[in-house]
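Board notes (copied after class):
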Amino acid sequence: MMLTTTACRSAAILVALLFLTLPAAAPALEGQLNLNTATVEQLEMLPTIGEGRARAISDYRKKHGAFRSLDQLLTGKLVGESSLAAIRPYVTLSGATTLKAAEASTATTRKATPVPAIDLGRHISLRPGEVRVLPDETYFPVLLQYIKEASRRIELAMFLFKTTASPENRPAQLAQALINARQRGVQVEVLLENSGYDEGLNRENEKVAALLRKNLIAVRLDQPETTTHTKLVVIDGRYVFLGSHNLTQAALKHNHEVSLLIDSAALARELTDYLAQIRSKE
């Protein structure tokens, strides 16, 4: 399949943004964060806590006073159980906030670190700047998890979004997760390919677009003379899914595909601007 000049240029921009924005190594965290005195910016350092959740925690503290227990984060519906488990090692209710990115030793940075295997039944939490490789079918459960936990905004651009009526169909599960996110107040925007040569692809994308629009999700299809070959999801202005996976059962379960999950607010801003540029031309 031949891509248009626009599609090739788009792919080049994505690659350039990835290498220009990402740090050389993903930092670990050390120290502690006092939940009762931390600023919004400090709260955002915690795993799974984006700007929306950080502000919600700060607002809750102003309204209800100091936290007396970490479990108040659950009862106040500020985080879920999996997020609480991810941040618990770094959070305290007293003392100074000393949380920072841990400095890797020279010896450590010189050694290649094997990519850790992903347990499909385990919550995947990231720290700011961290990158996780999502090969093959590991992409689906992690993307589904992050859509379910989104608190503010989801932007999705896909070449092909193909669902079936089967309860086991993974793209259909993602479509329902997007609908559920919209129903709880998350802003959801979707951009799909509108091919000038592949009517079968158009039928699949238009079917999903109709379903999402029926549930008040903003969906745009690109112009037939351009090819939007992007496979990109940006969640809460912080988490970026970028790679080769289309939203098809084959890509999400059977194919050899690889994508990255990146915790980077800077990269998320760049890619959000990139998508806005595409939408402005449609």
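Comment from the instructor: The chain has a mean pLDDT of 85. The first strand starts at residue 29 and ends at 30.
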